[in-house]
């Protein structure tokens, strides 16, 4: 049976359209016993893929389609080619990870994370090599020489890959590969280089890759069935059986086991860590525990000790205690161990809007550093009189936190190009020899410096909860009849003004909503035939884009059967579309807001549906968007809307920054410009990076500060920057002098510090 061995998930940024869940579901529906993951130059989805396969009784074949060049010291993009590598066993999996690390290391990165011949030779054990697609080095002038070298290195673990694409150049390449395979006795294998799961997703994949400025033939790049492979006319029939049998053979050879990660702590030099912790806590009991509350504190203490022992945290605490004790002896200043923010800090909510931190309540849903949705479990408010740190990432939008509040930064080596680029640290995409594979660190705010790289995650939106809009549910007083709704009841106006009660959410509707949000309005008006008292819908477009005008009118007719009129402005620079069907105007106003300052994307569209998102953004960018001088921008006076658009671009794998524009007139609203980067500042861990513009120390702040806790990973996005919600609580740590916050007094939660289900310590990224 045919098994798909060359597949790209959404980990292949703006190239692979399918999720690992969709890949595995497709394999299962076709009866495949195994499937591979071979994303471009990354293994970011490997664990997710492995776990999804395990859940569905599908064998996971772990791999990567590397960017290969003969020598990484050569700075020439034309010499970067594709090479598919699969892990046969655990040794192969380790070598696969070493190659992946090498690709992001030192001199290897040049526009793409690359491996070279020497790295491949050093780490080839336990690996299977496929010659890859037409982007292979085999498809070059020296292709036969490299084909022979692959054969010499991998032996019977090297396979010649052909693909059933309906392209003349693919047929020619297949003939070349088959000829080389016969000459050097190399087995053949067939793949479809799948970038999406099912044929119906082709149109969405085409939109997907165009976001990144790419376009190529993709009619067959989905996961094919066994019958489709056997019946294709694009692979010679005399080799098809061999190709299919070899997919099965390769799958039988690949047996990788990825163990669950665990915690690994150094040992503290004592015979009984439990008794040592109790001894330290007894010394400070009377000093720190309020009189009359011994029983309450003792119960909390015993509960914590039980969990600390069960999770092997006791030695971890003793090591921290010994380090801090030494610091105190050396008179090294220590932080307070509690982080908070002043009022006005903007917290990113699940739907892309923002909320002031002082307004956050239990049950709110926010975005964490993993890009996932987390629920707020508790809120905190403290009165302080202490120094603060003001960090500016977005111009004119600083955030102010206590000195010890944690922020996520990417730290690498010092950049040799600092004077010319202005960057203190190497960017992850730096092409110079100074670039190293850096790491993410949670650091206190008072350690942040100008030009540090702070983070914003690729947001993971929730699955759609509805696929159609019930207009009657939105407007209880509308009149319903025969599956249609209207605000007018008399016969003449009923027929002219009715629309279907249920409106399907389609890509076309999403684009129309984008048009309205970008440059539309809904106001009371008078119909051209004299009917007054209703609402009219208007949407404006630049005169130079009449094709957008026609598209918008077509959508209104197609979705609502609504007639429209067109009217240019006095200077003929823009064209206004008018629709006098009241219920349509009311619907769009209800979903998206009426005035520019309160425009927003409805929650039903802030979901995990790339096709909806692409068409929504298309409508938005065609109205208030701009492409000039190589920059794509979007302007609005609605900060919530701009934040939502940034969130959607992040979901699609593109980075954007928000700039606040100066107000030059007292009656004008503050304007916000979203700037989409032409090349994403992407590192490979689902994070974007932005430089810190400025850091200021505030000597003394008197007032209230705020924080909150969330479930699972305890972080949130403040002013479009990842920070830690630092209110973990541990009475044992308090009694040992590790921190100065009484968890019972301030209601901080122990499970934030120590959770039996957590795989790593609280502050670990």
From TrEMBL:
UniProt domain DOD-type homing endonuclease: residue ranges: 512-654
A molecular function (GO) term: endonuclease activity
Protein's UniProt keywords contain Iron: no
SMART domains: POLIIIAc
Keywords for the protein's UniProt record, in alphabetical order: Autocatalytic cleavage, Protein splicing
One Gene Ontology biological process: DNA replication
CDD domains: Hint
Matches recorded under PANTHER family: DNA POLYMERASE III SUBUNIT ALPHA (PTHR32294)
Protein name per its UniProtKB record: Intein C-terminal splicing region
Native source organism of the sequence: Mitsuokella multacida DSM 20544
């Amino acid at each position: 049976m045919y098994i798909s061995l060359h597949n790209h998930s959404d980990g292949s940024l703006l190239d692979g359209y399918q999720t690992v869940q969709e890949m595995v579901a497709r394999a299962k529906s076709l009866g495949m016993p195994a499937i591979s993951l071979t994303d471009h130059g990354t293994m970011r989805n490997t664990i997710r893929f492995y776990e999804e396969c395990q859940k569905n009784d599908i064998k996971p074949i772990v791999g990567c389609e590397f960017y290969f060049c003969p020598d990484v010291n050569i700075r020439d993009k034309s010499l970067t080619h594709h090479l598919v590598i699969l892990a046969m066993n655990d040794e192969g999996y380790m070598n696969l990870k070493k190659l992946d690390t090498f690709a992001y290391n030192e001199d290897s990165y040049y526009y793409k994370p690359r491996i070279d011949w020497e790295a491949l030779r050093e780490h080839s054990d336990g690996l299977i090599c496929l010659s890859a697609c037409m982007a292979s080095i085999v498809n070059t002038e020296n292709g036969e020489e490299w084909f022979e070298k692959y054969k010499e290195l991998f032996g019977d673990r090297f396979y010649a890959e052909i693909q059933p694409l309906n392209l003349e150049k693919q047929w020619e390449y297949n003939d070349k590969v088959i000829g080389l395979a016969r000459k050097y006795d190399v087995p053949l294998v067939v793949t479809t280089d799948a970038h999406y799961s099912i044929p119906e997703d082709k149109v969405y994949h085409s939109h997907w890759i165009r976001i990144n400025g790419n376009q190529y033939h993709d009619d067959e790049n989905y996961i094919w069935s066994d019958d489709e492979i056997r019946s294709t006319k694009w692979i010679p029939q005399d080799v098809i059986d061999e190709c299919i049998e070899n997919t099965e053979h390769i799958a039988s050879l690949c047996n990788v086991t990825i163990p669950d990660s665990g915690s690994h702590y150094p040992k503290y030099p004592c015979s009984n860590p439990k008794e040592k912790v109790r001894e330290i806590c007894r010394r400070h009991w009377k000093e720190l525990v309020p009189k009359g509350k011994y029983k309450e504190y003792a119960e909390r203490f015993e509960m914590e000790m039980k969990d600390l022992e069960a999770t092997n945290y006791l030695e971890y605490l003793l090591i921290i205690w010994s380090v801090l004790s030494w610091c105190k002896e050396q008179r090294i200043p220590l932080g307070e161990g509690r982080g908070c923010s002043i009022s006005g800090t903007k917290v990113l909510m699940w739907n892309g809007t923002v909320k002031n931190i002082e307004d956050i309540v239990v049950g709110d849903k926010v975005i964490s550093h993993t890009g996932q949705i987390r629920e707020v479990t508790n809120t905190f408010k403290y009165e302080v009189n202490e120094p603060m740190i003001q960090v500016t990432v977005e111009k004119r939008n600083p955030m102010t936190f206590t000195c010890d509040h944690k922020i996520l930064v990417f730290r690498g080596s010092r950049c040799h190009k600092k004077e010319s680029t202005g960057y203190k640290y190497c960017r992850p995409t730096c092409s110079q020899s100074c670039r190293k594979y850096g790491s993410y660190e949670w650091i206190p705010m008072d350690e942040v410096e100008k030009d540090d790289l702070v983070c914003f995650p690729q947001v993971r939106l929730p699955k759609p909860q509805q696929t159609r809009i019930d207009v009657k549910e939105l407007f209880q007083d509308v009149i319903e009849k025969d599956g249609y709704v209207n605000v007018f009841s008399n016969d003449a106006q009923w027929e002219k003004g009715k629309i279907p009660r249920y409106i399907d959410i389609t890509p076309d509707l999403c684009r129309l909503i984008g048009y309205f949000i970008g440059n539309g309005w809904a106001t009371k008006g008078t119909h051209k035939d004299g009917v007054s008292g209703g609402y009219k819908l208007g949407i404006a477009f630049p005169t130079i884009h009449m094709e957008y005008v026609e598209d918008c009118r077509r959508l209104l007719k197609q979705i609502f059967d609504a007639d429209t009129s067109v009217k240019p402005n006095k200077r003929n620079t823009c064209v206004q579309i008018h629709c006098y069907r009241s219920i349509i105007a009311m619907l769009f106003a209800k979903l998206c807001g009426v005035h520019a300052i309160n425009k927003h994307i409805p929650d039903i569209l802030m979901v995990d549906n790339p096709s909806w998102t692409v068409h929504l953004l298309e409508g938005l960018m065609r109205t208030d968007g701009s492409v000039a001088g190589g920059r794509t921008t979007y302007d609005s006076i609605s900060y919530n809307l701009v934040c939502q658009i940034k969130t959607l671009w992040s979901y699609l794998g593109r980075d954007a920054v928000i700039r606040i524009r100066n107000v030059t007139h007292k009656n004008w609203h503050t304007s916000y410009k979203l700037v989409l980067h032409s090349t994403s500042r992407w590192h490979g861990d689902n994070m974007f990076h932005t430089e810190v513009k400025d850091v200021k120390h505030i000597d003394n702040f008197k007032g209230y500060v705020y924080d909150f806790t969330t479930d699972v990973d305890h972080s949130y996005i403040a002013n479009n920057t990842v920070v830690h919600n630092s209110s973990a609580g541990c009475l044992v740590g308090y009694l040992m002098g590790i921190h100065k916050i009484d968890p019972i007094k301030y209601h901080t939660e122990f499970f934030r510090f120590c959770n039996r289900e957590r795989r790593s310590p609280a502050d670990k990224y």
